[in-house]
Specification:
Number of helices: 9
Largest sheet: 6 strands, parallel
Order of helices and strands: EHHEHHHEHEHEHEH
Radius of gyration: 16 Å
Number of strands: 6
Strand content: 15-25%
Length: 184
């Protein structure tokens, strides 16, 4: 495995996974990707989405987040930010909080990647049409080498997941299965 690589585990918060009826399959795959990365000494970086009390980061003109602003007002953000126990970070692994869909927006992810000399990011997460798509696009614009582990991503719409991983992402990223990546 080339040096300067990091595995990003994105939006694997227990409360968010509960919105996906078949999340146990994705958790199992992501757990294997994390184990592989740790075995190969590849840094694992976690990205979560969260807000301050009162959600001052949510602008009512943001269609996606405005619809959830009232819900977030009553959410215990510490509980919301909790990563599912089956893929939980180790004490020395970085967890960064983003304020939008993309892993870079409103977080310190880019600062962490630069500090570690990371040039290649390997993406896992939910949803394929959300954090994965947005992060692929911005990471490509920032000149990162990108790998998407297709079977370590999930979307509420299987057809959207298929189109993104087979037609859209290959334009800017290598798209591999966990098994293919594990053999590298």
């Amino acid at each position: 495995m080339e040096q300067k690589t990091a595995l990003l585990v994105m939006d694997m918060q227990a409360t968010m996974l509960g919105m996906y009826p078949e999340f146990s399959a994705i958790i199992g795959k992501v757990a294997k990707a994390i184990a592989h990365a740790r075995d190969k000494k590849i840094p694992v970086i976690y990205v979560t989405v969260g807000f301050r009390p009162g959600t001052p980061e949510i602008n009512m003109s943001n269609k996606g987040f405005a619809a959830s602003k009232a819900m977030f007002a009553n959410v215990d953000m510490n509980e919301w930010l909790t990563i599912h126990k089956d893929v939980a970070p180790l004490a020395d692994e970085v967890v960064t909080v983003k304020r939008r869909v993309c892993a870079f927006t409103g977080s310190d992810l880019e600062v962490v990647l630069r500090a570690k000399g990371i040039q290649h990011i390997v993406l896992t997460g939910i949803a394929t049409s959300g954090v994965v798509l947005s992060t692929v696009r911005e990471a490509a614009d920032k000149d990162y080498k990108i790998t998407v582990l297709a079977d370590c991503c999930a979307d509420g719409d299987e057809e959207v997941h298929r189109v993104l991983t087979t037609k859209v992402f290959p334009r800017q990223a290598d798209v591999l299965s966990l098994e293919e990546w594990s053999k590298m």
